[in-house]
Specification:
The structure is a homodimer.
Chain A (H helix, E strand, L loop, with lengths): L9 H13 L5 H11 L5 H14 L2 E6 L2 E7 L6 E5 L5 E4 L15 E12 L9
Parallel strand pairs in A: 3-5
Antiparallel strand pairs in A: 1-2, 3-4
Chain A binds a DNA duplex through helix 1 and helix 3.
Chain lengths: 130, 130
DNA sequence: ATGATAATGGTATATCATTATCATAGCGAA
DNA sequence: TTCGCTATGATAATGATATACCATTATCAT
């Protein structure tokens, strides 16, 4: 018996699977719907609990975005940014970095990082707008 | 008497002044503190009300940002992005655009706009960290 | 299979930004 | 100066997101 006894549950597995298979950042609600496909009856509280645990473990990474709920994505990807579809709201990964190496800052300012978001319409939503 | 009778109040003037003099986007709380310098007793509800009116008039523009309250800045500036100080939380304007002209998107995606945020330490906060 | 206890599900509650309510103050036209 | 009516200030209510609570379920070492 260890100090903390972590158990593997179907819900936990379903939630991890949801993020692992998504290939894009998911909101808690999206993760819920996806996890429920694998294990019906998963509750939203369990999703939040597991997200928090997975973030603490370093397996998940929060993706905060302007004016919308926080998404979470599997950690460890190389530097990249995101695209949000104006139609469906889904967030997608963008490969690479579209930022200049050195954005010019006001005198005396020091940069430590940056975020870049592209907005538009995803492939799945374009046909629907014809 | 016109259909709608808009009155000029000291509060309204103080709030507009706050944004006009800031030269950077302000949160409602920041606008409140600044407006109270010009007219003590201004309430936060009045700030929100006037911000809403000024946005509808097109004089103010909302600036949504990741994981923090919406800021508002005087409209009509040319394309630019923002810098947020990790120490004091203030948002500053950055001149120009640090984004590549054409970020590569997944197949079939269409871009309509982008946002860029730089994080770091502002000039005012660097001495305090020595 | 058993049992100690971690984890869950359903829901109430916390949190925070913003909006609505309403009695009162104070613009401004006459 | 008067007076109608808008704007204000204080605060309650709201909406969205996230956490707390607790009775019940289910994992896993034995």
């Amino acid at each position: 018996m260890s100090i903390r006894d972590i158990r593997n549950t179907r819900q936990k597995t379903a939630i991890r699977e949801a993020f692992a298979e998504a290939n894009r950042p998911l909101s808690p609600e999206e993760a819920l719907r996806s996890a429920q496909q694998l294990h019906p009856g998963v509750g939203i509280a369990t999703v939040y609990r597991n997200i928090q645990t997975l973030v603490e473990e370093g397996w998940l990474q929060p993706v905060e975005l302007p004016g919308d709920a926080t998404r979470y994505e599997v950690a460890g990807k190389k530097h990249h940014h995101h695209f949000q579809c104006n139609e469906c709201g889904k967030l997608y990964d963008l490969e690479g970095c579209a930022a200049q190496s050195k954005p010019k800052l006001p005198r005396g300012f020091r940069a430590s990082g940056h975020e870049f978001f592209v907005y538009g319409t995803c492939a799945a939503c374009i046909p629907a707008r014809q």
